[in-house]
Amino acid sequence: MSKTIIAFIIIIVVVGAGYWIYQSITEESSIEEEFVTDPLNATYIIEGDEFTLVDGKAEKEIVPGSASKIRINVFETNTKGDVNEDGLDDTVVLLTYNAGGSGTFYYVAVALNTNKGYQGTNAILLGDRIAPQTTEIRDGKVIVNYADRRIDEAMVTPPSIGITKQLALEGTILKDVTPEEAKKEQACAISGGTTKTSLCCLSVEDFPNTCLIGACGCSLENSHQVKICDCGNDKCFNGNECVVMENK
Q1: 75, 126 in Cβ contact below 8 A?
Q2: Disulfide: which of 4, 35, 70, 216 matches 117 by Cβ 3.0-4.6 Å?
């Protein structure tokens, strides 16, 4: 083999090795650049769309080329604690979502503190123009307290009904794990009802569907005290909200 060929092979090997080293360094640098050191710059999923924040803000065109934009802003990042039980303090993030109309929708998400920086979760809707109160992390659950309005109240009415939502991670997915009884009691209040106790059939649990005939019509010996939603005259609780009775 001639010296020229050997020299050419050596050059090819050196250039190839150099390129491989360069690519490795470049990829490593890119990964490092993706590390997020602040929840205000993490990426969150809201209504199926990803929003990468910059200093707590993000915006995206509603339709490509449209002047109307979805605007995301961080409302609060004060609550920290270990949500996924990995020994690292995560951050609860309250976000506002505005799509150009009059509504300002509040969401809650978590910025997970990992060895690759902060990673945002999906966001759970709290409500439109609510009044956030307190957030805490307890036993791996995120507990959000806020005030909302009855569904028949105008948006100019100050929120006055206390709501508590409990959230927890399933893998990396944030889910609403509020107990069903609490959900029904809150749904009763939001839809204009009042929680009371009443004698209902032994087979009936708290907050029964009072739109069905017979749920609370058993004999005394076959009844027990349960919580019900009293919706007022000509209304009943269907298990989710107060509605007008169909036979009225």
Answers
A1: no
A2: 35
pTM for this model (two decimals): 0.81
Half-sphere exposure of 18 (CA within 13 A, CB side): 6
Q: Quick one: pLDDT at residue 76?
A: 96
Domain residue ranges of the chain, discontinuous segments joined by +: 39-178, 187-244
Say if residues 182 and 164 touch (Cβ distance below 8 Å).
yes
Question: What percent helix, strand, coil does the chain show, rounded to 5?
Answer: 20, 45, 35
**For the segment 100-110, what is each residue's pLDDT rounded down to a tens digit?**
888 999 999 99
Q: How many CB atoms lie within 10 A of CB 12?
A: 10
Backbone angles phi, psi at 43, to 5 degrees: -105, 130
Distant-in-sequence, close-in-space partners of 41: CB < 8 Å, separation ≥ 6? 52, 53, 54, 55, 118
How far is 209 from 227, CA to CA, in rounded Å? 11
User: What separation in angstroms does the CA of 238 have from each of 157, 174, 209, 228, 230?
Assistant: 26, 28, 5, 11, 11
Q: What is the mean pLDDT of residues 56-80?
A: 91
The whole-angstrom separation of Cα 236 and Cα 48 is 35
- Residue predicted with more confidence, 38 or 15: 38
Q: Are 189 and 161 in contact (CB under 8 A)?
A: yes
